[in-house]
Hints:
By secondary structure, the chain is an alpha/beta fold. 25% of the residues lie in helices and 27% in strands. The chain has 7 helices and 11 strands. The longest helix has 21 residues, at 18-38.
Amino acid sequence: LNDNINDVYYQISLYNNINFKKFSKQNKNSLNEIIKNNYYNSKLKYLDLGSGFCNNILWKNKNISIDGLEIDISILSKIELDVNKNIYICDISKDWSLKKNNPIYNYYKNNQFSFTNKKYNIVISNFSFHNIFKTSDGFYNFINQLNTVTIHKSKLYISLIDIQEDIYLDDGSYIKCIKNQIKYKYEINLVQNWYKTYYSFRHTKPIKEPKINLIELNKIMIKYGWKFNKEFIVEEKFKLEGNWKKLYDSIKRLEFIKL
Length: 259
């Protein structure tokens, strides 16, 4: 069942779908608006999970201290970092220890880096949180590491897609609900289905991703010391049409606070 569930999200670089461009720009704008209005403070320390190309406004401010965890090692050759901004290659569903989980540990060792000794006020997981459920014990690895690197009243922001029915988009693209792809060790109600996603202009074949049950998520997060605080609603700046608007409206942007 779990064949191909770890495929790279974007398999081709074709970027010629105008609706997808607007959808992507809208999501980038929404994240930056939430950050600016709720988390933007040069005195805080930030952790970006699945930081990608470091496009949000926190990375643009030279006075802000932020670290990113990213699974794609090629990112290191495509971005510029400075003294208070770092990218570390890491699978957030596994142990975050560099010795155990990092293909370029010697680089960090030579630079005297000790990731798990750091503490963060704000943790951002923009469309990356669901990836921790791609393995049977990914959530437990994640939450234990998260609790290690955060403090009382730290905040966790996550965004994820929460559709209740299949969505069909341009040029044969779609997001479909499919049956569970792996057997979880615990909290099986947390992931009851997966998504099968295919953007014809970005994928050579569909990818599969876990669909998170938000009610069960709130239950397990409080169990591990994180209380749901609020959901952010961001109005469209770019006019989305058809099912692209439906997909945008399905996105949940949630904040949890560490007790």
